[in-house]
Amino acid sequence: MQHTILIVPGLGDSTEGHWQDNWLQHFPNTKKVVQDNWNQPQLKDWLHNLDTTIKAIEAPIVIVAHSLAVSLVMHWSQQNDTSKIAGALLVAPADVESPEHTPEEIWNFAPIPLDKLKYPSVVISSANDPYISIERAEFLAEKWESDFYNVGLRGHLNLASQLGLWEEGQAILAVLLSKLNTADNF
């Protein structure tokens, strides 16, 4: 079954050169959630734009969220019908509950929902991400019942990490898509 890959950027957007922007340009059947204010995010507004984008997509959706967008997806998943969501790649979640790790402008996304997701998911984090400890990322994955990948010392897996098309992330996404396609055949 053909899935739509939905790119969901975090604070500041995933601009040119970011792996999310590269994936958007590189892969077919890819769409992006656009926010009105990338630098002063308000959960209510971001939820509305995510929901509107999801409702406009007809095919099953695989979410690819980065940083603050992981909390956004978790809030959306708790409040909405997730039947259109086939799976999610949740990359470098930002710990919006930690003043030590995140800036004040994103604290309105706290608390991070801890409910088990109703769709298959993968959390990817780096051992030296300045916006979350690896232990906290693994804890979140456990609560959401997501598979967990520690990709080593790669920073926040953002533009500064210079990941290009991020082949490692593509390989993890391919594993998730393979699981989804297998499940579709039953």
UniProtKB/TrEMBL annotation:
A GO term for molecular function: hydrolase activity
Positions in coiled-coil regions: none
Top-level taxon of origin: Bacteria
Cited InterPro entries: AB_hydrolase_fold, RBBP9/YdeN
SUPFAM superfamilies on file: alpha/beta-Hydrolases
Protein's recorded name: Alpha/beta hydrolase
Organism annotation: Flavobacterium flevense
